[in-house]
Design goal:
Layout (H helix, E strand, L loop, with lengths): L3 H13 L12 H7 L12 H22 L5 H11 L2 H10 L10 H4 L5 H20 L6 H15 L8 H13 L4 E8 L4 E8 L2 E8 L2 H21 L1
Antiparallel strand pairs: 1-2, 2-3
Helix pairs in contact: 2-7, 3-4, 3-7, 3-8, 5-7, 9-10
Length: 236
């Protein structure tokens, strides 16, 4: 049984997602509750498995969205868009709009760790998607609130260099100016939470750093910062 106060919280979250009656009666509240319990709070009742499922739910929903909205684009462009739309950075930004951290039950140590915030929010949002999918065994509780975010972010991405693939954009820029490739220096800074850090070096100079739950994600963030830093340096 879910505590009545917790149930009211979950219903407020559903309302903020736009999942209102009568469709909200289809929500499995126990699954949604579990989706918002971080593994550091409980080893036996947490969102790990729902996050695992939600990752696939997200990719399917995003692929269907791109087919519906951007099917005129090349497969390469659609793949680049999808890669960005399912990234931790994008998911965390979406989660922020719903203040998902307020609903997430986690240990105080994790709550107070700013470096883990992006990963924590991204995982929680994926777990929520997994819980909503299992509630109806379809995407009816996911796509209505997810698609507007994907549309807004995709349109913004199309205005960025290399569709937001900053590693590719940085590589093209450095090759054009110096006939050199940037160097990435990577390390794992949190073995427990699997958070990685990447630094971009060029001409023996540090240009930017980033973090993520994979080396690829950390490098993308670092490349975005480095690209702006290098352009600013050349402009001066």
């Amino acid at each position: 049984m879910i505590d009545p106060r917790r149930l009211r919280e979950l219903k407020r979250l559903a309302e903020s997602l736009g999942i209102l009656a009568p469709i909200s009666v289809n929500i499995d509240w126990s699954l949604l509750d579990c989706a918002l319990v971080h593994p550091t709070f409980s080893q036996t009742y947490n969102n790990d498995r729902l996050e695992f499922l939600g990752d696939s739910v997200l990719r399917l929903a995003t692929t269907l969205f791109l087919r519906q909205e951007f099917n005129h684009r090349s497969l390469g462009e659609m793949a680049a868009l999808r890669s960005n739309l399912v990234s931790d950075q994008t998911l965390a930004a979406i989660a922020e709009t719903y203040e998902l951290d307020l609903y997430l039950v986690a240990s105080e140590s994790v709550k107070l760790e700013p470096k883990a915030r992006q990963t924590r929010l991204a995982d929680a949002l994926e777990a929520v998607m997994g819980a909503l999918y299992l509630s109806t065994n379809d995407l009816n509780l996911v796509c209505p609130w997810l698609y507007p975010h994907l549309r807004r972010i995709a349109i913004a991405l199309l205005e960025k260099p290399a569709l937001g693939n900053f590693k590719e954009a940085l590589q093209e820029f450095t090759q054009a100016h110096w006939k050199k490739l940037p160097e990435y220096r990577n390390r794992e800074i949190d073995p427990i939470l699997h958070i990685f850090q990447a630094e971009v070096w060029l001409n023996d100079q540090f240009w930017g750093g980033g973090e993520g739950k994979s080396i690829k994600a950390a490098q993308q963030e670092a490349a975005a910062i480095a690209l702006e830093s290098i352009k600013a340096s050349l402009a001066n």
